[in-house]
Amino acid sequence: MCKGLAALPHSCLERAKEIKTKLGTLLQKPDTTIDFIIPYPDKPEKPVKTQKPSPEEALQWRDSLEKLLQNNYGLTSFKSFLKSEFSEENIEFWIACEDYKKTKSPIKMAEKAKKIYEEFIRDEAPKEVNIDHFTKAVTMKNLVEPSPSSFDMAQKRIHALMEKDSLPRFIRSEFYQELIK
Predict the structure, then answer these.
(1) The Cα angle at residue 170 between residues 133 and 130, in degrees rounded to 5
(2) Average pLDDT of the chain, as a whole number
(3) How many CA atoms lie within 13 A of 136 on its CB side?
(4) Taking the model in full, what pTM does it have?
(5) How high is the pLDDT of residue 45?
(6) What is the distance of C-alpha 81 from the center of its chain?
(7) Do 41 and 150 touch, CB atoms closer than 8 A?
(8) pLDDT digits (tens, 9 = 90+) for 113-139
(9) Which backbone phi and psi does 130 adopt, to 5 degrees?
């Protein structure tokens, strides 16, 4: 384990420089037009035509954020609720991670990883999510060589936060109460 700068073995310093170089390459400013392709639109897309859930189905959302997120109507409703509270960055990060995991092309994956990092992870990001320093460090290390699981730890932390904090507020909201009548 590498500890303290003065006591760092040569191999640790070399590894640190290598990681810094790779991360710097991943996070550098765009220099080609391909980098200007933004995979997540700033304007909301028209919602997918979804059927309003039955009160019984909506009642299941109280017990499981997963069931809520798997239902298009539930996901759209939850996102709208969070927007009304000015706290939509967590659900947007979760959605971006889900999209990222489906990416097959390594080039597209690196582009999306950079976009997610810039938008949600880096310090002072426009939609910075609230994750601890350890999770942020692990995520940044994972971005040196992007893979479908690069954001897993951060996504799990945000999912837990939404389950503990946002879901109970949504369940108490007037909109949800109307759904279950």
Answers:
(1) 10
(2) 82
(3) 14
(4) 0.71
(5) 42
(6) 18
(7) no
(8) 999 999 999 999 999 999 999 999 999
(9) -90, 90
Structure tokens at 70: 């798997």
Using H for helix, E for strand and C for coil, what is the string for the chain? Answer: CCCCCCCCCHHHHHHHHHHHHHHHHHHCCCCCHHHHCCCCCCCCCCCCCCCCCCHHHHHHCCCCHHHHHHCHHHHHHHHHHHHHCCCCHHHHHHHHHHHHHCCCCHHHHHHHHHHHHHHHHCCCCCCCCCCCHHHHHHHHHHCCCCCCCCCHHHHHHHHHHHHHHHHHHHHHCHHHHHHCC
The two structure tokens encoding residue 142? 């994972």
Structure tokens at 111: 């582009």
State both tokens at 36. 């200007």
